[in-house]
Design a protein that fits this description.
It holds the Pfam family WD40. InterPro entries: Quinoprotein_ADH-like_sf, WD40/YVTN_repeat-like_dom_sf, WD40_PAC1, WD40_repeat_CS, WD40_rpt, WD_repeat_multifunction. It comes from Dendrobium nobile. Its main location: cytoplasm. The chain is mostly beta strands. 0% of the residues lie in helices and 46% in strands. It is built from no helices and 32 strands. The strands form eight sheets. It has a four-stranded antiparallel sheet with strand order 1-32-31-30, with no helix packed on it. Strands 2-3-4-5 form a four-stranded antiparallel sheet, with no helix packed on it.
């Protein structure tokens, strides 16, 4: 190979410089004109064993049937909900009728019904066995932020962006009560596990404790309390304490009998997006945009361990009666943590955008996650029962 001593200028090859000539059969070359090549596509690692791709836009909500380990429901920005079977490419039912984002959905405790809530202000109740709509429940017209079934019956509680809270009897398709008192969107809420109390949190930074029969409420205003909108709440299994998380990075424990703040869990430095009470101990978990999952000892109001993420934590879920907690993150990963040691025992890859919600199948063997990437993914977690 003849090269100039200088690095400047052009470099030429002569026939005498050829060392070995290789003949190429043109039929073996790819036909670039007949094949569209996308050079931006990269292969992502995927730990899921099943992916549901029926939606055409971002997904926000997922629920698993409490009696059928294969039945899952999802809802999203494409104004649609689906019921589908894990592992089946052909067994899915589109839940038609909503005219805006399906923001929330949930199965009744006996698995008989599925309720879907939308920003169109409607809740549709579906027979989960027949796949047919049972009734449509309409409030004041404001978008539905969340809905919950009564733990022992077919009553539906829902919070609206117009600051109202509604209670319906799904069997009779009638409204039982409307709760007014919040001054802004009702962002979170639930029945107590014994079904006797309703708790709702709002973007107005308040928590209200309601008597579901009379509609009377206690407005929690202890000191300190949240200074910004509430994002999440969870109630202990003895129905005595509510844990509330806020945009202001604080978590408070509220006595449901008195409405007083009894303790504050202070360690986060950004909005608390999710909170969950362990079903098997006096522990709780909180996740925040500060990239931390914190496991708390509620009896001592102190953190047990802090689990560091690469990006903000968007959702969490205790895995049955086990000591493990699953989290979803802005980075698209689902992680499983040992609450005793604070160690990440599994990172589940597959999503390429924010993970919005998590659910566990009835047999506790699979974890289902939904994401802004438009997919629902199913991961095996049988070793974490």
């Amino acid at each position: 190979m003849n090269m100039n001593d200088s690095d400047e200028g052009e470099v030429f090859l002569d026939k005498d410089d050829i060392i070995h000539e290789i003949s190429i059969d043109e039929e073996e070359l790819p036909d670039w004109d007949d094949e569209e090549i996308d050079f931006d596509v990269c292969v992502e690692a995927d730990d899921s064993f099943y992916v549901f791709k029926g939606h055409t836009d971002e997904l926000y909500s997922v629920a698993c049937s409490p009696i059928d380990a294969s039945l899952v429901a999802t809802g999203g920005k494409d104004d649609r909900g689906f019921m589908w079977k894990v592992g089946s490419q052909y067994s899915s039912l589109e839940l038609q009728g909503h005219r805006n984002t399906v923001s929330t959905l949930s199965f009744s405790s006996d698995g008989q019904f599925l309720a879907t809530g939308s920003f169109d202000g409607l809740i549709q109740v579906w027979d989960a066995n027949l796949g047919k709509i049972k009734c449509t429940l309409e409030g004041s017209g404001g978008g539905i932020e969340w809905l919950k079934w009564h733990p022992k019956g077919h009553l539906i509680l829902a919070g609206s962006e117009d600051s109202s809270v509604w209670l319906w009897n799904a069997d009779k398709s009638i409204s039982l009560n409307t709760f007014y008192g919040h001054a802004s969107s009702v962002t979170c809420g639930d029945f107590s596990p014994d079904g006797k109390i309703i708790c709702t949190g709002s973007d107005d930074a308040s928590l209200r404790i309601w008597n579901p029969k009379t509609g009377e409420s206690i407005n929690v205003r202890g000191h300190p309390y949240h200074t910004d909108g509430l994002t999440c709440l969870s109630i202990t299994h003895d129905s005595t304490i509510a844990l509330t998380g806020s945009k202001d990075s604080s978590v408070h424990m509220v006595n449901l009998a008195t409405g007083r703040v009894i303790s504050s869990l202070v360690s986060h430095s950004d909005s608390v997006e999710c909170v969950g009470v362990s079903p098997s101990s006096h522990w709780a978990a909180t996740g925040s945009l500060d990239q931390k999952l914190i496991i708390w000892d509620l009896e001592r109001s102190s953190p047990r361990c802090t689990c560091e993420h690469d990006d903000g934590v968007t959702c969490l879920l205790w895995l049955g009666m086990s000591r493990y907690v699953a989290t979803g993150s802005i980075d698209g990963n689902v992680r499983i943590w040992d609450s005793l040691s604070g160690r990440c025992v599994r990172s589940l890859r597959g999503h390429v955008d924010v993970v919005q919600s998590l659910a566990v199948t009835a047999d506790q063997s699979s974890l289902v996650s939904v994401s802004n990437d438009g997919t629902a993914r199913v991961f095996s977690i049988s070793e974490f029962k």
